[in-house]
């Protein structure tokens, strides 16, 4: 099959309502969105707390969080694998090679991004509005809800950046999910597998969806930053 035929077949999968194709896309979006929501629920308050709290070793924690933004996906997958394996501390839960394990792995990848960007943003906002917040009696960590709300558009950009990383990730989910057909096979792991098998239409079809998602994420990120700048102005 030449490239033209493969592309034609790929678009047929994208728009043809193929159940197996959409099952892979649906699982990928479910896992990624779940991981991003968990990372946001943990990372937003944690990043704000890190920005405003003062404690011994704070600088080291900031350096660690910033370093973890570049955590290799395969390392994240290995960590989760060891924790969830039969001999690991959470092995009794039986989560390894399930979508839940993939959510945990992707959350581990996205969380440092959310914490680091939130910490920097809240720190900057607090420095800008410190006196105004103090006049309202919002000192220390009591200012966190107000600052999070004021920086909501910029924080949305951070969350979308996390979504972008999680949606394109392959190493971690392959290690902890096992790429099981119909159960833990995501778009990225399916593309890797089908390309090696020579099934170009499926790989290209999933690649088209991933590119569309990437462009959509960037468009939403740009729109959020513009809206945030307009409100700030």
Second CATH tier, the architecture of one domain: Orthogonal Bundle
Find the CATH topology of one domain: MetI-like fold
For the biggest sheet, the summary is: none
Q: Which ranges are low-confidence, i.e. pLDDT below 50, for 5 or more consecutive residues?
A: none
Q: What is the share of helical residues?
A: over 70%
- Beta-strand fraction estimate: under 5%
What is the CATH homology-level superfamily of one domain? Answer: MetI-like
Overall, the morphology is globular
Radius of gyration: 21 Å
What is the terminal separation in angstroms? 55 Å
How would you spell out the order of helices and strands?
HHHHHHHHHH
- CATH class of one domain reads Mainly Alpha
Mean pLDDT: 87
Number of strands: 0
Number of helices: 10
Structural class computed from helices and strand pairing: mainly alpha
Keywords:
233 residues; mainly alpha; 10 helices; globular; MetI-like fold
Report on the structure:
There is one protein chain. The protein has helices at 3-15, 19-52, 58-68, 73-84, 99-135, 144-150, 152-167, 171-177, 187-197, 200-232. It is mostly helical. α1 (3-15) packs across α10 (200-232), α3 (58-68) crosses α5 and α4 (73-84) crosses α5. It contains ten helices and no strands. It has a domain at 27-186: MetI-like fold. 78% of the residues lie in helices and 0% in strands.
């Amino acid at each position: 099959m030449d490239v033209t035929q493969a592309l034609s077949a790929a678009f047929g999968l994208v728009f043809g309502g193929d159940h197996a194709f959409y099952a892979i896309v649906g699982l990928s979006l479910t896992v990624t969105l779940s991981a991003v929501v968990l990372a946001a629920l943990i990372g937003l308050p944690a990043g704000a707390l890190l920005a405003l709290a003062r404690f011994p070793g704070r600088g080291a924690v900031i350096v660690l969080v910033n370093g973890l933004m570049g955590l290799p996906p395969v390392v994240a997958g290995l960590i989760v694998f060891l924790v969830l394996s039969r001999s690991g501390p959470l092995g009794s839960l039986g989560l390894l090679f399930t979508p839940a394990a993939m959510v945990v792995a992707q959350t581990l990848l996205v969380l440092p991004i959310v914490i680091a960007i939130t910490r920097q943003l809240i720190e900057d906002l607090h420095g800008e509005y410190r006196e105004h917040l103090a006049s309202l009696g919002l000192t220390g960590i009591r200012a966190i809800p107000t600052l999070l709300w004021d920086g909501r558009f910029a924080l949305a950009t951070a969350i979308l950046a996390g979504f972008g990383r999680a949606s394109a990730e392959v190493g971690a989910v392959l290690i902890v999910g096992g790429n099981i057909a119909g159960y833990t096979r995501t778009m990225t792991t399916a593309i890797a597998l089908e390309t090696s098998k020579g099934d170009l239409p499926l790989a290209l079809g999933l690649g088209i969806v991933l590119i569309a998602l990437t462009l959509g994420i960037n468009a939403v990120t740009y729109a959020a930053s513009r809206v945030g700048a307009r409100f700030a102005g």
